Amino acid sequence: MNDTAAAGSGNAPGQRARLGAPLDATLEGVGTAALVLDQAGLVVAANEPALRTLDRRLEELVGKDFHDLLHRDEHGNAVPRLRCRLRNAVLGKDTRHGDAEWFARGDGTLFQSCWLVTPYTSAPETAGALVLLYEPPQPDESLPGEDVHSTRLTELDRLALLAETTTQLTSTLDVDEALHRLAALTIPRLADWAVFDLLTERDEVRRALVVEHKDGVLVERDDLQGPMPPVPEESPMPLSRALRGTASSLAGPSTYQGAPDSGIAVEQQRLFTATGMHSAAIAPIRGLRDVLGALTLGRARHREPFTLADLPLLEDLTRRTGLALDNARLYQRQRKVAETMQRHLLPQLPTVRGLEMTARYLPSPDASSVGGDWYDAFTLSDGTHALAIGDVVGHDLDAAAGMAQVRNMLRAFVWSRPAAAPSAVVTQLDEAVMHIAEVPMVTMILARLTRGDDALWRLHWTNAGHPPPLLITHDGQAEYLDGAHGMLLGTEVVRPRPDSVTVLPPRSTLLFYTDGLVESPHHSIDHGLSRLYRHAASLAHRNLDSFCDALLERVRPDDNDDDVAMLALRTPFHTAA
Q1: Degrees, nearest 5: CA angle 104-110-115
Q2: Most buried residue, 51, 80, 98, 151, by CB count within 10 Å?
Q3: pTM of the predicted protein model
């Protein structure tokens, strides 16, 4: 009997916990759920507690992607692969820990579990990662009147908190996410409240996040968040000093009981009244060059007030926070610059009488947020219209610069030869790409749109290694225009390029798109094309903008890491005389 058969036949626990790769004896005795993954994140082994916890047979786990099969958000939806810290730790061969995330049992129900992932090798053929799932720790039971959470940390506790803070904050480039993570690390462990005041690039103050620990969960207080008065230059009050980067300090309700010396002091009076905090520690959040804001930790239910001995730990936390916020803000500035650059690289669509036309561009979810995907549409001197869509290999600034080169050369060639067949223009462009442009390879479609004496629109086009256009009639019949398919640009292979002509029916929709709409690392291109075909046909009755938005939402794969460009047009209703 082979291993798979043995696993499903109810043999001894030690045997049932092995399928495809052995667990060593130590893991067989682990009392919590343990799974071994290979380097790609596929399950290769699991122990008995894992099978019980997940309510699955071993053969239902082995060979499956751990993330896709098991990891969920609180609503039962799949967690985006690119934002999954567990999956990234497996692929990056890192040791990481996560608190109270959601996983799916075999019957579809969800359960919450902490996790630990670390590189693991029991034999050369099983190099990968070990994942442990275990119940979130419960708060210690306390006698009536006692603090629910102890704030006295050992030196080991402090080091562990700082290490976990570094891990949590360095694994995100989103400012809001970083603040929420730090709040979850510090309350209720150190305090009952966490308050983040951030300085904007215009030196304005925003109370970005106020979180309290209530009934065992963290609750965000929107009513206490929002814009704040400016930072006073000479105020000695604790928050004002922290926002100037002067010093960390302690505060309490009495600190702000007198006549307020500034608008910030008024807001602090309101904060202490609304939260019931009897003690607070406030520290500046410093970046590499500037003060970025301040963190306030406040105690209401904890009876012990903060002391000066607590400030060094708070300052260690805010130093790490400052570095994380610096990185996040730098990334967001670069992203904004990249997106602005991309908008200027992509053209405004012409107004063509009798036609609707729209376009979409969606950047890659990571990298520099610009890429080599592009579209173009413009009117020629003879009254016809040129349409193009293409993809320069890559999705970074080099690809975007190469895309601009190719698009500008194409415009010049098409404009100078309005009567030339699309294939002739693309052949000319291919020669230029090989000798002038600094791009590796390019796929593209070039088309000329004309209106005949019968008032019907005709598409003359050639395809250089690009996904085929999709034509959808108003009643939902769809077909890919597979003709005119030739070699992509930049291969240095000289072959004749074909042309095709298609009559566009009245009220039909023509869609050009780049491969980011249909390609996925885990499915074939045919699978993506089939999804696009079905959804486009079902959306044929929608207006053109809604049609494109719905396609992006429904068709683009969740694990896509490429940018997407789309160009769509719709012909008018017409009955020939």
Answers
A1: 70
A2: 51
A3: 0.50
